[in-house]
TrEMBL record:
The lineage of its organism: Bacteria, Pseudomonadati, Pseudomonadota, Alphaproteobacteria, Rhodobacterales. This is Aminotransferase. It comes from Litoreibacter janthinus. One of its GO terms (biological process) is amino acid metabolic process. Keywords: Aminotransferase, Pyridoxal phosphate, Pyruvate, Transferase. Gene3D superfamilies: Type I PLP-dependent aspartate aminotransferase-like (Major domain). Its cofactor is pyridoxal 5'-phosphate.
Amino acid sequence: MNMSKRIVGLTGGGSDGWDVFYKARKMVDDGVAVTELTIGEHDIRTDQSILDAMHRSASGGHTGYAMVPGTDSLRDAVAARLTARTGVHTTRNNVLITPGGQSALFASHHAVCDEGDVALYCDPYYATYPGTLRSVGAVPRAVPCLPENAFQPAFADIAAKSSGAKSLLVNSPNNPTGVVYTRETVEGIARACREYDMWCISDEVYDTQVWEGTHISPRTLEGMAERTLVVGSMSKSHAMTGSRVGWIVGPKDVIANLITLATHTTYGVPGYIQDAAVFALGEGLALEEKVGAPFRRRRAIGQAILAEQNVVGLVPSSGAMYMMLDMRATELTGEGFAEKLLDTHKIAVMPGESFGSSAAGHVRVAMTVDDDAFATALKTIVDFAKEIQP
């Protein structure tokens, strides 16, 4: 029996970009000590106060089917959060609660793309983006965001790819680069969406992790609220990656139709997890800053180490939990460097090529081990690059 072309074609016939990660995990399973700087998983766990709130809710009986759009209390909390952060009036009718940000990306593209529609995304990209677009029947088309432009998507580059496109997926603070889009960049994104009549799907899961600059949501710009879907999540801001709770914020009519989609797919998010999310959001900036503090600290550690040499370049690391390192002086591909680093020093990083052709010759380093281990690993990466450069 044949499977659907859609399901067997999610990766476009090539690698899914996770080969080095899988190799590192196999080494760990075999008992090899590996410093893993691969995925965006906090080295701290979900705060105990959030877990206590989750336990109280579950013990109190909120373990049955929750409302499919999300509980009123969580939708109200998310709406209040977006209103306060962006100044755009938002109500619960603008909010759908989803099982994490990945589910929100899938549903958002279902909302705006028909089979065969072209959907734009920025390269470099989070590794699941093209597969997510293919999974809804859309045709992925990459917009190159080049190293010489600090990986910022330029209006001209978006415009060059926009003919016939239905949507544009953007992500700031950015995974994998750590770049925070400037106002000029966001205005260019908005201009392209208006001029070429595209939906903007804005992945803002790292909006609490801005170390330099300012996070600007495209939804805040003129004429964009009615054509923007914002994807958010508790995963990165509150170290709740395994809880799988995220959201889509957008026009009321879009959300109403997405509720119908959720009824036929996920059927909502467990109520006790939503109650824990309400509690976590109610803790305000103090808890978010506590979760983000290790990455801010390690960014400074990394900048100091990299400032003492001239072989490994650092992409402006303004947000999120990653550093993107330019390894082109070694004359290796990102994948080649990552493979050699893993084999020689048992340090696992993600090749830039896992995130698209624009990041070729780079590697992404997740700042997700303790400070001393991170500093040691980064110094080893630098020394290894010096050793193998021509």
